[in-house]
Amino acid sequence: MKDINSERWTENVLSSMQRNKKVSPSRDLFNDIQRRIDQTEIRVLPFSQSLAGVAAAVLLLAFNFFAVNPYSVFENNPRAIVSDETASAPELISDFKIYE
Amino acid sequence: MTAITDGDTVAFRQLYDLCAPQVYSLALSYAQEEQAAEEITQDVFTNIYKKAGTFNGQSAVRTWIYRITVNTSLNYIKKKKRNNWLGLDFVKKEATDFVHPGAILENKENAILLYRVIETLPSQQKTAFILSFIEELPRQEVADIMEISLKAVESLLQRAKKKLREELRPHYPHRRKIKKYLSK
Q1: Does A15 contact B133 at a Cβ distance shorter than 8 Å?
Q2: Are residues B58 and B99 both part of a single domain?
Q3: Are residues A17 and B49, on separate chains, in Cβ contact within 8 Å?
Q4: If you count Cβ atoms within 10 Å of the first and of the last residue's Cβ in chain B, which end, N or C, has fewer?
Q5: Cβ of residue A76 closer than 8 Å to a chain B Cβ
Q6: Mutate to test the interface with A, among B9, B17, B38 (most CBs of A within 10 A)
Q7: CATH no. for residue B178?
Q8: If you ran DSSP here, which 8-state letter would residue B170 be given?
Q9: pLDDT given at position B174
Q10: Size of interface A-B (CB pairs under 8 A)
Q11: What domain range is A94 assigned to?
């Protein structure tokens, strides 16, 4: 008798979640999801904007090249630059020649 | 799904309204905690929005969504277990019996026990049991969600029920204690 009761009880437990009431998440959950999507969404740039970005980068590299170029010339031929500067400001150079 | 891929939020809202209760209910059966189930639901719908373009129409949308929910829930549980093991879960909670908010009053004490013993099942058996006996989905749909044969689902359910019966056996004489706990 106890076995029959035990079996019946077990079956009742196993089927206890059948015909259960439907559950729903909280009302604000959709807004949270929306917010999360907006945060993680990667903005796809239009082609013209991407092109402008590439042009700006190229321009920046070019400016950097021209800025650094005189130093590389100096490293190759230091006299050329020094003589050039002496020609443009002789009094400045002479002031610094204190051991002459 | 095409509209969602194109970023149509109205279509996404419609899909959410249609499927959120099922997703939440399934997540609740795995996580056994309302806040965690909401987190899983959030993850599922964020993934649906991001991956709508990858839906190839080989299965029904509902099946696809259920599959994402099962995987997200199992990953959530795995991550939680790992964090517990590493001691990273700083807000440790007391292990309490889960009272499913959808359980009918007269079934509440049995439902508490059921959720307690479901935890002992391996993940495949757990999924088959939850989808079949809690979500009450047809066996063929369960097979489609799990991407296994109908025969394999039947076999998993048989093993799950056997294991659950074994786990429930020692609880039978003590069921009065649960009644007492519930009446408090």
Answers
A1: yes
A2: no
A3: no
A4: C
A5: no
A6: B38
A7: 1.10.10.10
A8: G
A9: 59
A10: 92
A11: 71-100
Distance CA B58, CA B11 (A): 20
Distance in angstroms (rounded) separating the CA atoms of residues B146 and B140 = 10
Q: What is the pLDDT of residue B97?
A: 76
Q: What pTM was estimated for this model as a whole? A: 0.70
Q: How many domains does chain B have?
A: 2
Residues B1 and B63 in one domain: yes
- Residue B26 has φ and ψ, to the nearest 5°, of -65, -45
Task: Say whether both B164 and B108 belong to one domain.
Answer: yes
Chain B contact present for A13, CB below 8 A: yes
Q: What is the domain extent for residue B153?
A: 94-184
CB within 8 Å of B25: residues ≥ 6 apart? A22, A23, B102, B134, B135
Q: How many residues does chain B have?
A: 184
For B133, which of A14, A23, A32 is closest by C-beta distance? A14
Q: Which of A41-45, A54-58, B109-113 has the lowest mean pLDDT?
A: A41-45
Segments of chain B with pLDDT less than 50: none
